[in-house]
Design brief:
Length: 218
């Protein structure tokens, strides 16, 4: 091969190498751009996703606060100042059933999401109401499915308790200190409204008092 031919071949080889390098650099540049774009999209998506759930949580809090401010339709109220808070050791004759306040036993029923399948003493339950608990009661008019639904709800809600009261007027009743609501179904939206408003609510005579380490039914 002549010197001229060798020089031409070397020049062509060098040109091919340079072209390959340019192609490789262009591919690396595209890959970097693609990686950055995908990463940016993921970050933006995660930020948007997080913001969405923060907004949802804030909306839920606002809805619960709004529900707590509204009166619960159909609830009965008693003057809290007339509901005495003396500790007594004898049975108490209450003017309402279930009772929503008044003199009571010095021991409270454990009300940390407590579900009792047998009747409990009124005097101990009233002490739980004094501590800010909501007491859900039912009789044999209540559907089994509704009782189970409410039991599940109580089990997940501190400062609540549940038990049967066979001689109460309504199928399902919710009681707080000085407040009471009767419903026919567990799906009634007023159930959650009542819980939101009165679990450790403004009606509580002794807010923050314990609902644990009380009396547990056998």
């Amino acid at each position: 091969m002549s010197r001229t031919s060798k020089k031409s071949a070397a020049t062509a080889r060098k040109a091919r190498i340079e072209e390959m390098r340019r192609t490789e650099k262009a591919r690396e540049r595209r890959n970097r751009i693609l990686t950055i774009s995908v990463s940016t999209a993921i970050v933006v998506g995660l930020v948007g996703f997080g913001a969405y759930y923060v907004d949802r949580a804030n909306d839920k809090d606002e809805q619960q606060q709004a529900a707590a401010k509204k009166p619960v339709k159909g609830e009965k109220s008693w003057n809290a100042k007339k509901l005495t808070q003396n500790h007594v050791s004898k049975p108490v004759s209450y003017p309402m059933n279930p009772p929503v306040g008044g003199d009571h036993n010095q021991a409270w029923m454990t009300c940390d999401g407590s579900v009792y399948t047998k009747a409990i003493p009124n005097e101990n339950a009233v002490h739980s109401l004094e501590h800010g608990a909501v007491w859900i009661t039912y009789n044999d008019k209540a559907a089994d499915a509704d009782v189970k639904t409410l039991a599940d709800k109580v089990g997940k809600t501190p400062y609540t308790l549940m038990s049967p009261v066979e001689d109460q007027a309504g199928a399902l009743m919710l009681s707080a200190w000085g407040k009471q609501l009767t419903v026919e179904k567990a799906s009634d939206p007023r159930v959650q409204q009542f819980l939101t408003k009165y679990v450790q609510g403004p009606q509580t005579p002794e807010p923050g008092a314990a609902c644990t380490n009380g009396i547990d039914a056998a």
